[in-house]
Amino acid sequence: MAFAAERSGADELRRLPANWQALLGRYRLRARQKNRPALVGGHLTRRKGQSLEFREFAAYTPGDDIRHVDWRATARMGQMDQWLVRRFQSEEQMTLNISVDLRPTMALPEVCSKHQVAAWLAEAVARIALAEGDRVVLHGLFGRRGPLEPLRGGGSSAVTGAVRRLFAHETVAEPGLNGIQQLLKPASVWLIISDFYGEDSAHAALAERILAARRGLCWVILVDLDTWPYERSQLGQGAREIEGAIPHDYASPQRYQINQEALTHVEQKIRRHKQSLLTWCKGVSLDRVVWSWPATAMPPAEIFFREKFIDDPVLARLFMREAG
Amino acid sequence: MIWLLFGFGFGGWLLVHMTRPYAQKYRISAAQFFRDLPPPQEKQPRFRLTVPLRSPSFWLQLAWWLLVWAALMFMHRKVDVGGRAASGVWLMMDTSASMTVPTENGSRFDKALVSAEGVTLQLKAMDSLPCIRLSAFDLTRRDLLNDAAPTEVSGVLASLAPRLHDTTLNVVRQVWRQIEQGPEGDCAMTHLVVITDRPAPDWTFEVADGRLLWIDVAEPRNNIGFVDLEAARDPLSGETRALTISSLAYGKPPVDALLKISGPDGQSLPQQPLSFSREGTARNRFVPKRPGAYLFELVPGGDYAFDDRLVIQVPPAEGLQVDWQLNDRTLPQVAGWQITSEDPDLRVLPIGALETAQNNVTIPSLYLADQPAERRNIRDFQEDDILLADINFDVLERQAFATFSLPTGFEPVIRADNGQVWMARRSEPPALALSLGPRFGSSDAAKLSMLAFFNSLRWLLTAPHGDIAPRLAPRDAESVRLTLGSGEGDTSRQALSTGDLAYLTGERQIAAQQPLWPTLVALAAVLFALERVLAAFGGARWR
Description:
heterodimer, A: alpha/beta, five-stranded parallel sheet, 10 helices, 9 strands, 34% helix, 17% strand, disordered C terminus, B: alpha/beta, five-stranded mixed sheet
C-alpha cells in the first residue's frame, strides 16, 4: 500500500516501460548534426582564446559552420565543389545537463504527476546521450545535494537508478544553481524541466543563471510542464476547499468560491508568473517547450508522455530519428 | 437501555459518515495562485445520503459495530472449550456436628473418609501426580496439608473427627473463588473436591470443565430437634413468666415423642407430649416456678443427637430497672424497682425535661406534669384506648387534676375543655406525658391516678416498643453453646452431589463452555485499533 508522502519520492516513480528501449534506440543526439536554426551564435563555436583539438576533415554539408571550411585543404584536394570542414574533438563529446524541478508542486496531479513525466523525460534523454558517448549531468532544482552524474556508458538500469537517486533529494527553498555553473560549458545543452511555479526570487536566480549560460554559448531548453488545463477542469464551479502540494502545510487548505471569473483570474496569474522568468531572460533566445495536461480525457501517463515526447519539435532537434 | 445506547452510537456514526464536507476538497499544484480569491458565499447542506463504498476506514468501522452488536445479541451464548486433568487438587472435609449422623455404614464422617480415600487412590494412579491441599471445615476452615503428594493424605485424614460446630459453606465458596483467580505458587490449585453432608449449592452446577467435585455423603434419616425458644417476662417485675419451646421433626416424626423436663437441682418435672403439626412443628409451653437451670430433652431424639437436649438458665426476677429522675422516690421504693441510669428499662422525668430531652433516646420515657390542679370537663378522648382502660371519667371531671399543653410531637389521649390535655403520647421514640398521677391514698382521685399511671407503664413497656428481651442462655448438656435452628439437625434430605471423578483425573474431557461475548469484544477492539493506526499513517488514500 502506498501512503501519502510530503513529496513525491523515488519509490513512487516508475521507470520507462521496457518497450521504450527500441524507441530510444532510433534517436541520436541532434547536437552532432546541422539544422539548429534556432541557435544564435552556434554553440559549437569555441570560446575566444581557447583552441579546439582537431580530429578530422569531413565533407561539408549544409548547416555546418562556414567558418570551419578549410579552404587550403579543399584546394589541395582539387575539388572546389566539395568543400572540406574541420571536425574538432570538442564537437564530438557534448555535455547534456538536465535540471529537474524537485519542488512539491511537481508531485501533482496524482493521476499523472509532473515528477513522473520529468523523470521519464530525464531518463529518455540521458539514455540517448549516454548511448552516443556523451556526458550527462543530472541536477535537482531546489534539491539539497549537488549535481549527480550517471555512469558513463552505463546501461538503462544505471540511468534509472541515477534518476531515482535524484528524486530522493530533500527539497529546499533555493534553486541550488551553484553546483551546475561550471558544467554549463560551451557546446553543452541545459535542459530545465519544471512547472515554473517557484517564487519570484527563485525565478530571478534562475534567470541570472540562464543568461550566463547563454552568454557561454550553452543551449538552454525550458520544458514547461503545464497542468493547469487539467486541474482547472477538475475544479468545476462552486465552493471548493483547495489544498496545496504539501498535506501538512497549515496555510492550506482554504475555501474559495470557484466560478469562471475566478478561474480566469488564476490563469492570468499563472501566465504572468511564468512570463516573469522570460522577461528576466529578455535579450537572449530560449527554446521553450510546453507540455500541457489535457482538460478532458486524460490518457494514461505512459501514453501521454509518449505523445508529448515524440511530437515535440524542439526535442526533435536534439535527436534525429534514423531512417526507417 | 443498552440497546438504546447502541442505537444512538450506531446512528451517530452513520450520520458522521453521511456528513458532507462543507466544501469539496481538491489538491492541486497551482494552489498558491488562489490565495487572493474571496471565500465562498453560498451555504450547502451538510448531509447527504451516500454510501462510502470506497472507504476502507468505513468498512472497518462497520465491522467493529457489527461485532459489538453481535456481542450484545449473543451475550448469553457460550462456546465449548476443552477441559484438562487436575494438576493441583484442594480437598475439603466437612467436620461439623451433623457428620456424626449415622448411615448404613457407620457415620456420615466414616462415609466421607471412604470417599476421600477413593479420591486419593484415583489421584495416585494418574500419570502426572497432582499436588494436594487438605482442609477441614465447619464454622471455620483449618488447613492441614499444603503442597502434599497424594500419598500423604491418608495419614492426616485418619486424625480427623467431627466437631461440635455448625456448618457454613461460605468457606467453601471462598476457596473456589481463590482457585478461580488462577494458579499461584508451585502447587497451583486447579480443582476442588468437597466432601460434606450438605447438598451441592446452585453455584457449583455452573462450574464448567469438571473442575469441581461435590460429594454429598448424607442419607435421609428421621430426626427431631429443638429449633426455637421464646420467653415472656413480666414487664413490671421482670419475672420470667413462661417459656415457649419449639421443636421440628425432619422426616417422619415419632408418634410418642415426649419433652422431658428437669428442674433446678435435677428434680423431674411433669413431661409433656410433643404434638407435631402437618408441617412438622411442635410448640410446648412451660412456666418455671423459680429461677435456676432447667434441662429439656426430646425423647426419642432422632439420629442427630446435638439438638435433643437444651439447658435454660432462668434468671431470678430482677425487677424493673428505672431511671427515676423525680425527687419523690416513694413509688419505686414501694414497687421494688431498681433505680439506675445504666441501661434502664424505663425513664421517669418531670414534664419540664421534654424541652431538653434527647429525641434519639429509645428508652421508653414517662413525663409527669405537676401543674396546679383544677376541675375540668372532658372535651374529647381516644375511644377504646388501652391507656384509658378502667378510667372513671366521672371521677376525672369531679376531681381536680392538672392539665398541660400538648407537647410537640405528641398526640392527645384525653383532652380537657380548656384545650389542654391530661394524657398525651408519642410513638417514636416511645414516650408518654401524664398529669394524672401517681398519688397515694384511698380516695377516688388517688385510685384513678394510680390506674392511669400503671396503664401508662404497661403501654410503654409492652411490644412493639418497650419489649424486654428474655435473658436466657440455652446450652447443651456439655455446656457447649449451639445455635438453635442452624440446620445441622436436618437429616431428612436426599443427597445432592455434582461433578465426576473421571473429569478430575482426565479420563474424560468435558466440553467446558465459556461465554462468546468476550471474544467478540476482543475482536472488535483489534479492528478498532487497526483502523485507527491505518487512519493515522495511511493518509487521505486510506480515509
